[in-house]
């Protein structure tokens, strides 16, 4: 099964790395969603929440970020931020 390879990196080092089905992030001009096969892109991020849906189908992983950038090329997603704080899980 195809998947995204995701790296979330903050100033202090790697925050998370793994396989995902989807990545959502707060782009400067609105929310951006990345799925398998997305065209190459480089986007500036604003403050907000980065969400990663792991391939195992579990709960989305979430981090609050103050800004940074997101790069996508050949199903490799790299998110670089100054700081990432793990968000608490919401209950439905």
Structural class: mainly beta
Order of helices and strands: EEEEEEEEE
CATH structural class? Mainly Beta
CATH topology group: ATP Synthase, domain 1
Number of domains: 1
> What's the helical proportion of residues?
under 10%
- Largest sheet, strands/sense/barrel: 9 strands, mixed
How many DSSP-defined strands?
9
**What's the end-to-end separation, in Å?**
29 Å
Q: Report the sheet-strand fraction.
A: over 45%
CATH architecture: Sandwich
Give an account of the 3D structure.
The protein is mainly beta. It has a single domain, classed as F0F1 ATP synthase delta/epsilon subunit, N-terminal (ATP Synthase, domain 1), CATH 2.60.15. It contains no helices and nine strands. The protein has strands at 4-10, 13-27, 30-35, 41-45, 48-54, 61-65, 68-73, 76-81, 84-86. Strands 1, 2, 3, 4, 5, 6, 7, 8 and 9 form a nine-stranded mixed β-sheet that branches.
Helix-strand blueprint:
Blueprint: E1 4-10, E2 13-27, E3 30-35, E4 41-45, E5 48-54, E6 61-65, E7 68-73, E8 76-81, E9 84-86
Parallel strand pairs: 1-8
Antiparallel strand pairs: 1-2, 2-3, 2-5, 4-7, 5-6, 6-9, 7-8
What key attributes describe this structure?
single chain, 92 residues, mainly beta, ATP Synthase, domain 1, nine-stranded mixed sheet, 9 strands, 0% helix, globular, ATP synthesis, ion transport, cell membrane, transport
Compact summary:
This protein is mostly beta strands and 92 residues long. Helices cover 0% and strands 65% of the residues.
